[in-house]
Amino acid sequence: MRVGFVQWPDGLIPKSETWSALCADVASSAPDLLITNEMPFGPWLAASASYNAERAKQSVQIHEEGLEALQALHVPIVISSRPAIEGDRLVNEAFVLEGGSFHSLHQKHFFPAEEGWFETGWFTTSKPGFESIEAGGLRIGALLCTELMFNERARAYGKAGAHLIAVPRATGQSIAEWQTAGAMAAIVSGCYVVSSNRVGSDSGGPTFGGGGYAYAPDGSLLCQSQQARSITVFTLDKQRAEEQKSQYPVYVEEKLVPSI
Fold this sequence. Notes:
Layout: E1 2-6, H1 17-29, E2 33-35, H2 53-71, E3 77-86, E4 89-98, E5 101-107, E6 113-114, E7 117-118, E8 133-135, E9 138-142, H3 151-159, E10 164-169, H4 176-189, E11 192-197, E12 199-200, E13 208-209, E14 213-215, E15 221-224, E16 231-235, H5 238-244
Parallel strand pairs: 1-2, 2-3, 9-10, 10-11
Antiparallel strand pairs: 1-16, 3-4, 4-5, 6-7, 8-9, 11-14, 12-13, 14-15
């Protein structure tokens, strides 16, 4: 399967000239599965420490338009995330489009609270759990940005038989720790780990660093995004992920002390 990951610009607007150019890049690359960056459309809300209901509604609306734009790519499988209003906050929902049909995965559970990423002020979680899905013959899970830092989630996906962990991100210019986290997620899960990130600073928030990548199920780096290209594509071998499940350390079971 041909899997594509991207580095799309901050502040991306559906139906804009920039979007049209990105669509042409996707079409020419012809991926079977596309992974976008985290909440890929519009300004990055969490640059502000204070929740603003009107800006939240605008972000939801632009991502509704973005959902239509993603469906219009006619890529067989697209993995992304979007905001949705939940009470006086938003939730950040990972989802899969398969054949244009929408399937929810899970809501983001882990949120930073620091300059440029005041996510705890904007987001909540109303639905527990980290679901995976069968799509295109693969078992797929997603970790949204900061969730990648918690290896137990990647390991659980591997134990559930996942072949691919998609990691939509919105992270800054320092990418070394995200590369380490991606490699470790692959090592503990026996899954391909593939991540896309925003790039630049077009909407007054932090400067996003791009740095998308694909790690093989053994943790080796397959490829990285390039500044001159908005999309990078590699070939995913499902059998390689299945075989890695019997290799160290994926097969190792935790021994629990019996309760007295």
